[in-house]
Amino acid sequence: MKLFPISALAGAVIFSLPNSLSAQEANSEIADTFSEEAEQIVILGSRRPGRSVVESNVPIDLIGEDTLQAGGFTDISRQLQNVVPSFNYYQPSLVDGTEHIKPASLRGLAPDQTLVLLNGRRFHSSAILNLNGTAGRGSVSVDLNAIPSAAIKRVEILRDGAAAQYGSDAIAGVINIITKDDSEGGAISVSGGSYYTTVDGVPELVGVQVDDTGAVVGNGSSRVAGVYGDDISRNDGENYTISGNWGLQLSSDGYVNISAEYAHANRTSRGGYDDGDTYPKNEDGSFDLREIDADRDRFYYGLPETESYTLLGSAGYVFNNGIEAYSTVTFQDKDSLSGAFYREASDEALLIQEIYPDGFTPRILAEIKDYSVLAGIKGSADIWDYNASVVTGKNTVDYTTSNTANATYLLDTPTRFYGGELASTQTTLSFDASRYIDLDSLYSPISFAMGIEYRQDAFQITAGDEEAYTNRQMTDESGNPIFDESGNPVYPTNSLFAQGAIYFSDAAEVDEDRHAYAFYVDVDSDITEAWNIALAGRFEDYSDFGTTLNGKIATRYTFNDGFALRGSISSGFRAPSLQQQFYTSISTNFVDGVAYEVGTIASTSAAAVALGGEQLDAEESTNYSIGFTWTVTDKLNITADAYRIEIDDRIVLSETLGDSDDEAVIVQQVFADNNIEGVGAVRFFMNGVNSVTEGVDVVANYTAGTVLNGDLSLSLGANYNNTDVSDVVATAGPSDLFEPDQLFARRERERLENAAPEVKANLTANWRGDALSLMFRTNYYGEVTQPGTTQEGDVTVDAAFIVDVEAGYLFTDNLEGKVGVNNLLDKYPESAVITDQPNPGQFDYIIPFPNFSPYGFQGRYAYAKVTYSF
C-alpha cells in the first residue's frame, strides 16, 4: 500500500491556498484550550502544535522523569523495560559484541525497526551488528544508554508505524527522548547497589569425588565426578553511580543545562562450576590429582564489568528578532569487560601449557566511544514557522582481547591482541516549515507542515593486530615453510588464531558510505468539532537501493467528552543498514585439509553473488491500528489499541552455506565455476522473509486521591504480541541450489518469532505522604521459547511475576533518600541443571539459563539512593 500520493496531493492543494492565519496567530487562539494539559503536550505523532496525549489519534506513551527514576536501575533501557509493556530489553551473556551494547525493541520487532530521536531529531545507531544467537540477531541497535538518565525530562513513545512521518526504521514506532531545559536549579544523586541472590537450580560444587586410592573419579571421558551441595549464593555486581544535573541562566533569554554521570559496575556470575577436565590426563588415562583443587568457577556468564563517563549538555537562546538557537551535545566513554569460553590446559592442540598451566579464560574488552552534536535555529517568518538543524553522531567500538594466545606461534605468542575497530557515523540536515490555513468550511484551521532532509551514513571496519588473525606456518631446520603433499601449509596445531578474541583481518576492512534525500508533507485538521484527520507522506531517495514512497492516514472521532475512537493505516520502510550490507568477518577453517576463508560477507561480494546474493532492498511494511481512549471519570483513563504490522522482504542473515559435507561440495563447485578461489562456507544478508505481527496494547491510569493521609495513584499496562513468519521468500545459488529452508532454517525462524513474550504487563502503585513515599511494581512476563536446531532442543522460559518495591523519605525540602529491591522474590528462569539425572550436561551447569529470558537471570538486587536538589 502506498498512501503518499493522497497526502502529497492534499499538501499541494493546501500549500497553494491563500493564507488567512499564521502559525503564531493560530497558536495564540488555541493556547487556552491546551493550558490545562500543558504537561501532557507531546512532539510525536503529529506536527500540529499543542497536541496532547489524550487528543492524539495514535497511541503515545508519555513517561516522566519521576516514573523513570523509580526503581534501582540508572540506565534508561532497564528503566523503560520496567514501565512500558511493549518495550523489551534482553541481557544476554557470552555473546561477544552484543554483550556490550544490548538490543532493545518495541512490539517484538527487530531493534532497528524502531526509530530513536533525541529532542525530536534522529539519533545515530551503534557500530555493532548483533550476530550471535540472541533476540535481534542480524540487527543494529541504538545505544540508548549513551544518554545519561539524569538528563532526561521525559520519554515519548509512539506505538504506531511512522516511516511516512519520520523516515526509515519507524516500523514498530518511535522513541523520542526529551532532555531537560531548566535554566536554574539542579540535583546531585549518589546511588549504589548489589545483587544478593541464590542462583535457583544451580548447585554449588563443594568438592571432587576420589576413590579409596585417592584417584579422581570420572563422570564421563573428560569430566570429573563432582560433589554438589545447595544452590549457589552470590553477592556480586556491586555498583555505584554519581550523577548531576545543573541549569544555568544564559543572559536573560537563554539557558544552559548540563548533566554528567559516572558509573561503575562489577561483573556478576550466574553460571555453575565447570566439571570438565582442567589438565592433561596421566599416561594411564587417569585424572591429574591437580583436578581436586582446580578453580572451577572460570566461565564469565553474567553481566560484564563496566565503567562509563557520560555527559549531555543542551542550550538555547532567543535573539531580539525572535529567532531561537538551540543545541544538544552528548558524549560517552565506556569500557565493558566480558569473558569468552574457558580454554582447558588439557587441550593438547593449544600446546601452550607453559604460558597457562591452569588453562585460561580470554577477556574481551570493548572500548566504546559515542558522541553526537545537534545545532539548529527555529523561529517565524511572516506566515511560516521554521526549524532548521544539523546533527552528527558517531559510535566506535575498539576490541582488545587479553589473557589469551595464538597457539600457532607457540611460546612466542602475544597474550594480548588488538582486534580492530568498528565505527558508524551519521549526519542529518533537516529543514521543517509549518503554517496554519483557515478555511470556513472546516471546524479548525488546517495545520500544514513540510520539510526536507539530507542524511549521510558511513561505516568502517579497521583491522587489528596481524598476529590475531594470521597463523604461523611450521618451518624446517633451515627455516623454510613446510607444506603437505597437497601443497597446503602445515601449522603446529589445529587451534588457529587468537583464542576467544573478537578480531578483524585486513580482508575484512570496510570503508563505505551512502546518502539519502527526503521530502515530506504533513496535514492535520479537525474536520468537525468531533472528527480529526491527519495525512502524511514521505518520499526518500537512497544512493544505494533507490527510492521509496510512503504515506499515512490517521483519524480520531470524539463521541463525547470522555470517549473517542482512533485509527491509522500507513505504509513504511526500513533501509538496510550499512553494517548489514558490508559487514565482513573472515577467518580460515580447514575443509578436507584445505584452507578456506569462512565467515560473514557482503551480499554484493563475488562469493555471495555466485550464491544468489544481491544488493539489499528496503523492507516494506503496512501498519493498521484501531483503538479508543476513554476518560471514565476524572480519576480513571483507559486506552486500548489493536495493531497489525505486515513486513515484506525482511532483511535476515542466511544460514552458513557450505558448513556441511554435502553443502561444501555444492558451494565449492559454484565458486570453481565462477573462478572464486580460497572461499569456503559463507553467510550473508538477504531480503529473506515476510512476517505478520499482531497485538493489543492497553493502558489504564487511576488517581485514587487521598489514602492514609497520602496521595495514591495506580497504573496498569499490558501488551499482547504475536509474530509469525508468513513466508520464506529467498533462494540462493544458480538454479536455486539451496531451498528456502536451507537459507533460513527452523532456529532462525523461531528466533524471529520468539523475540518477545506473547504477553507482558505491569502494575505500579505510588503513594506519597508529606515525607514518606512508597512504590510497588510488578511486571508479568509471559512464556518465551529459546529455539534449538530441533524442537527437542527448545528451551521454554515459563511465565513469571517480577516484583519491585521502593521506599523514599524526604529529610528536608532538598534532601531525599530511597532504598529498594528489584526482583524482591529472587525469581529466575528454570535452570537447565536437572539434578535427579545421573549425568547432566557439562554446559547445563556452566550456562544454566537461556539468553532469551525476557527478565534476565540476575536475581535479587538491593540498592540505596540519595538525591540533593537545589
UniProtKB/TrEMBL annotation:
It comes from Alteromonas australica. Residues 55-174 form the TonB-dependent receptor plug domain. The keyword Membrane applies. Its main location: membrane. This is Ligand-gated channel. Residues 1-23 form the signal peptide. Belongs to the TonB-dependent receptor family. Keywords: Cell outer membrane, Membrane, Signal, TonB box, Transmembrane, Transmembrane beta strand, Transport. It is a multi-pass membrane protein. Residues 342-824 form the TonB-dependent receptor-like beta-barrel domain. It is found in: Cell outer membrane. InterPro entries: Beta-barrel_TonB, Beta-barrel_TonB_sf, Plug_dom, Plug_dom_sf, TonB-dep_rcpt-like. One of its GO terms (cellular component) is cell outer membrane.
